[in-house]
Design goal:
Number of helices: 12
Distance between the termini: 52 Å
Shape: globular
Order of helices and strands: HEHHEHEHEEHEHEEHHHEEHEEEH
Number of strands: 13
Largest sheet: 5 strands, mixed
Bound molecules: 4'-deoxy-4'-aminopyridoxal-5'-phosphate
Helix content: 25-40%
Length: 354
C-alpha cells in the first residue's frame, strides 16, 4: 500500500441491483415500477425541453420550491415541513449525517435496507443491529434501550413486512430523546403511513420516494416530512454539502406526478392485485414467504436453493435479487412486474421446479 493510501477513507460500498443494458429481459430485481410515469410527467418534460430548455444555463432553484410546495399541498403540510432530495437515498444520507450525531449507537434491524450500515460506516456513526424475530418481524421492545437514533423501513425491505402503526408509535413513545426515521419507500402498496405522527411527535421523520409507486426511479426524487425544526437542520446540512442537489428536469417533472391522482391510484392498485395473485401461484409452486405489503415478495423454497433458482432465472433472462447474507441466503426478492412478466416468471418456475 502506498503511504498516501493510508489516509484515504475506505468504505465497503452498497451494491445496487444490476441494471443490464438489454431491453428484452424481465427485470424484477430492483423494485422498479413496471408501468410508465403519469402522462403529465411526459408533458412536463416536453414543455421543459421546448419552452425552458434555455434555463439549463442557470442553476436550479436550490430550495426546490415548486416541488416542495406540491408535496406540502398533496400531504396537507406546510412547506417548512418538507425536504426534497435526489431520490430517498440522498434524503436518507443527509438525514443520517444530520440526525445521527451521538456517541451512542443508532439502532436498525439486522435484516433491512443494506444501505443503512454503509451510511453509518461512511459517516462513522456507531450502530447496533436488532435481530428480527424468526418470522422476520421487528420486535418493538428491542428499540427501548438507550440509543443515538432509530431507522427502519415500513414495510421493511427486503421482507415486505408491514408494521402496524401502534407498534411504530410504541417505538417512538419509548424514544423521545432521539430522532426516529421511518423509511416509507414502499408504503403506497397497501400500508398505512405514519405521516400523521409528525404532528404528534416532533422527533419523527418520514422519508418517501417517487422511485416506486410513482414510477420515477430514473428521475431521482425523494423527500422527507417532519417537524419544521428537523427540516431546518436537514437543510442546514444540505447547504453545507451541495446546495443544488436537484436538477431542473426533475424539478419540472416531479410535481406533474403528484397532479394525476387517478393514474397513481390505478397503477398502485394494479401492482397490488398482481402481487396478490402471484402470492397464490408461488404458494402453489411450493414457495413460502411472510405476507408482503410492498411491490416485491421475499420467498424461499423448501426443496430448491434460492441461489440456483436465481441463476437459472437469470440464464433465461429473468432478473430477481439474491442476497448472499446470513439468515436470508436462501431467499429471493422478486419485484412485482406487469401481469405478463409475472406470467412468464411463473411459467419458467413451473418447468424449473418439476
Ligand atoms: N429505502 C428503501 C427501503 C429502498 O429499498 C430503497 C430502494 N433501493 C430506497 C430507500 C432508495 O430509493 P430511491 O433512492 O430510489 O428513492
Amino acid at each position: 500500500m502506498k503511504v498516501w493510501e493510508e489516509n484515504i477513507r475506505k468504505v465497503i460500498p452498497y451494491i445496487p441491483g444490476e441494471q443490464p443494458k438489454q431491453k428484452d429481459i424481465i427485470k424484477l430485481n430492483t423494485n422498479e415500477n413496471p408501468y410508465p410515469p403519469a402522462p403529465g410527467v411526459r408533458k412536463a418534460l416536453i414543455r421543459f425541453s421546448e419552452m425552458d430548455y434555455d434555463w439549463l444555463r442557470k442553476y436550479p432553484d436550490p430550495t426546490s420550491d415548486v416541488l416542495v410546495e406540491s408535496l406540502a399541498n398533496y400531504y396537507h403540510l406546510k412547506k417548512d415541513q418538507v425536504f426534497a432530495g435526489v431520490g430517498s437515498d440522498d434524503v436518507l444520507a443527509m438525514a443520517f449525517l444530520t440526525f445521527f450525531n451521538s456517541q451512542k449507537p443508532i439502532l436498525f434491524p439486522d435484516i433491512t435496507y443494506s444501505f443503512y450500515d454503509v451510511w453509518a460506516d461512511l459517516f462513522q456513526i456507531p450502530y447496533e443491529r436488532q435481530p428480527l424475530d424468526e418470522r422476520f418481524r421487528i420486535v418493538p421492545s428491542d428499540y427501548y434501550k438507550k440509543n443515538g437514533g432509530i431507522i427502519f423501513p415500513n414495510p421493511n425491505a427486503p421482507t415486505g413486512i408491514l408494521m402496524p402503526l401502534d407498534e411504530i408509535e410504541d417505538i417512538i413513545r419509548h424514544n423521545q430523546d432521539v430522532i426516529v426515521i421511518i423509511d416509507e419507500a414502499y408504503i403506497d402498496f397497501g400500508g398505512i403511513s405514519a405521516l400523521p405522527l409528525i404532528e404528534k411527535y416532533d422527533n419523527v421523520l418520514i422519508v418517501q420516494t417517487f422511485s416506486k409507486s410513482r414510477s420515477m426511479a430514473g428521475m431521482r426524487v425523494g423527500y422527507a416530512m417532519g417537524n419544521k425544526t428537523l427540516i431546518k437542520y436537514l437543510n442546514d446540512v444540505k447547504y453545507s454539502f451541495n446546495s443544488y442537489t436537484m436538477n431542473q428536469t426533475a424539478l419540472a417533472a416531479a410535481p406533474a406526478a403528484l397532479e394525476d391522482e387517478a393514474y397513481f391510484q390505478g397503477t398502485r392498485k394494479k401492482i397490488m392485485e398482481t402481487r396478490e395473485r402471484v402470492k397464490e401461484e408461488l404458494r402453489e409452486l411450493g414457495f413460502s414467504f411472510e405476507d408482503s405489503m410492498a411491490n416485491f415478495l421475499f420467498v424461499t423454497h423448501e426443496n430448491y436453493w434460492a441461489r440456483d433458482i436465481f441463476e437459472a432465472l437469470k440464464r433465461s433472462g429473468i432478473y430477481v435479487r439474491y442476497f448472499n447474507q446470513p439468515r436470508i441466503d436462501n431467499h429471493l426478492r422478486i419485484s412485482i412486474g406487469t401481469d405478463e412478466e409475472m406470467d412468464q416468471l411463473i411459467a419458467f418456475l413451473k418447468t424449473y421446479l418439476k
